[in-house]
Amino acid sequence: MECIVSWGGNPATEGQGSAMSFIAQTGSGHVLMMDGAPDAAKPENGGQNLAPRPMETVLAGTGGCTAYDVVLILKRGRHDVRGCSVKLSSERADTDPKVFTKIHMHFTVSGKGIPASAIERAVAMSHDKYCSASIMLAKTAEISTSFDVIEA
Questions:
Q1: Is the pTM for the entire model greater than 0.85?
Q2: Contact 147, 123 (CB under 8 A)
Q3: What is the pLDDT of residues 67-84, one digit of tens each?
């Protein structure tokens, strides 16, 4: 897997001083923009709030990774899953490196006749075995999960 992340030469921020905007080109041929938070004390070091922060993309990627697993596990179990979302809430360390220290993942799964035990199992399998992102983040963060099931 490869990715190229570049600063500068971004037409969206051209002429805006030392913007902290970056473009990532993924090995699969996709583009993702990232930006830093505005810095009131040192504007030249801050971003323009034009895109997600890099750590937000880490959190979003983790959510995508685990939601993918949950849907796939439920489908493989022949459950009639029709929707899945996961809300991730996190806390970070106060000092550098500001790693994630706590992450809570709340899943909302909709479908027809899906037993809660199947969702609980799918979430646990993702968390314990399949989701590379959450397993990596568990090295620094306490990860907790919960879920709701909606009959659809």
A1: yes
A2: yes
A3: 999 999 999 999 999 999
